[in-house]
Structures are given as structure tokens and as C-alpha cells.
Amino acid sequence: MIYLGRTHKEKQAIIKEACVSASHVVIFHGSKTPEVYEASCPIEYRAWDDIIMYKYFYRLLQEITSDSVIILDEIMRTQDRNCLTYNCLLHYIRKAERCLVFQYFPIIDDVENFCILADMVSCGRTRGTNYAALRGIVADVVRRDYQIIEQPVGITDADRKTYDKKKAAIFSRPIKDPEALPRQVALVAGDIKAKSCSPESAYVARNARFKRPNILTYKNAPRDAIILDPPVSAIVMHDHLAGGADTPAILYMSTGLPVDKHYIEFYRGIAESMRRIYDDQEK
Predict the structure, then answer these.
(1) How far apart are CA 183 and CA 205, in angstroms?
(2) Tens digit of pLDDT for each residue in 130-166?
(3) Which of 23, 65, 189, 193 lies deepest, with the highest CB count within 10 Å?
(4) Which residue, 92, 107, 141, sits at the end of a domain?
(5) In a 3-state reduction of DSSP, which class is residue 209?
């Protein structure tokens, strides 16, 4: 079963009930440090990087039986549906026959990402099937319809000239990854926005370059911090927002410059894709 939008407390209740008759539980988690749970039998925790390691892979394939329960806790860390890590997880799941999938948000940034979760609970039977053609995959849903709230800030002509100059310099350099361009330009916009930050509010930036106590990074900022820099990926944003019992919001500080418009539309697109999945599950 796929469980969407659950808090740690809610996950714990589901795990406790599902593992009553289990002899062995393995929790594969996407975070570096696992969320700790309780069950009526021993729990082994394995991080994302452990999943493909030989020293764990072959041992777990021997130890996992039909009396085991496999739990995937926020394990969607790449959009590559055929990656080696997901393939290894399917080997474990097929041995156990019982699998719980917990994912706070149903996608990374595209509806097709939901197929990754479907592959896990179907033991791979849905592989090769796109989202529109998925049949029989039911999720237990707590909706997390996040919204993007734009918080405009004023900029001067001098700010705009600085932005244009630095943007031109970034675009003039050879670069292999086109996605790196808006990420770099966003930092220039962030430097401009930082001048408007209030000392009474918390903000989140991509790094610690500002050296100010109320401008934090995505590693330690509260969920309601105002976005100064967008993160390097939607996965980082979702890690930042996930876990709470309330519906999260993205409070995005915007200069109105093209790079801020780009990211606002990007996350609005993700939110719309999530709503499509939630709506489909409620039909």
C-alpha cells in the first residue's frame, strides 16, 4: 500500500499494526538519518546509499522471507524509474511479499514520478506503464496541496543593472548542464533580495553566504521560512516542507525578475501535478 502525506506519528501507527505478525522488518529510508519506529520485532534500517551495496544486498536477499515486511520511507530520490537502486528494492520486495510505501508528496516534479511508487507496491508489474495507463494502484491519501505565495520586494535600477551584468557573465561561460544556469542566476537575485530581509523573520538560502542568524540553509530552516534562494532541486524543497501535520506553503520572496518568475511557475506546476494525482485517487 502507498501512504501519502503521513506524519511520523501516523506512520508509526500504521507500521505497528502491519508488523504484528512479522518476523523481520527492513526500513529503507531516503534521508541520511532514519526516522526511528517501533515494531513487535527487530527493525533494520538501511539508507539510500546502502541499497545497492553488495555487503547488504546478498545478505538481505537471504534473510528476507515471506514473514518479513519491507518499508520504504521517503525513498523517491531520483526520477530515473529504472535506476539500480529501485531495481534492488524490487528484489527485496519480491522476497518479502509485503511492502509499505510512505511518501509525503506523491511526485518529485512530474506526474510520471508516481509510477515509481506504483512499481514498488506492484512488485514491478507496472514497469513500462505510464501514469495515464496505470490501473489498480490505490493510495491511502492525506492531501498536501501546497501553495506558492509570492512575496514581492522592490528593486532599484542599480539592482537590475547588477543582475543583468552578472547574468550575462554566467551565460557567457561554457556550461554542460542547462539547468545550472537558472540555479546560478537565482543566487544573484538572492543577493538582491537579502537587502530587503527583515531581522524579525526567518529566511532560507541555498548556502550560508549571508552570515546572518535569521538567514538559514535548507538543512536547518523551519518549514515556514521565507524562500530567499530556491533550492537546487524539487527534492530538496520537498525535504524542507515534508513531515508536518499542516498543509505546507512556499513563501517565495520575488523580485519580479525572470529567474524568480521561472521558479514560481516551476513550483506551481508541481503543485498542479500533485493535485491531479490526489484528484485521481479520490475518484
Answers:
(1) 12
(2) 999 998 899 999 999 989 999 999 999 999 999 999 9
(3) 189
(4) 141
(5) coil
Q: Which domain does 192 fall in, by range?
A: 147-282
Tell which residue, 151, 150, 183, has the closest CA to residue 167.
Answer: 183
Q: How far apart are CA 73 and CA 116, in angstroms?
A: 13
Tell me the Cα Rg of the chain.
21
**Which ranges of the chain would DSSP assign to H, the alpha helix?**
8-18, 54-63, 84-96, 114-121, 157-172, 180-193, 234-241, 258-282
Q: Contact at 8 Å (CB) between 63 and 25?
A: no
CA atoms within 13 A on the CB side of 183: 11
Pick from 141, 175, 190: which residue ends a domain? 141
Distances (CA, A) of 257 to 26, 75, 188, 262, 264: 47, 35, 11, 9, 11
The model's pTM: 0.94
Q: Residue 239, by phi and psi: left (phi above 0), alpha (psi -120 to 50) or beta?
A: alpha
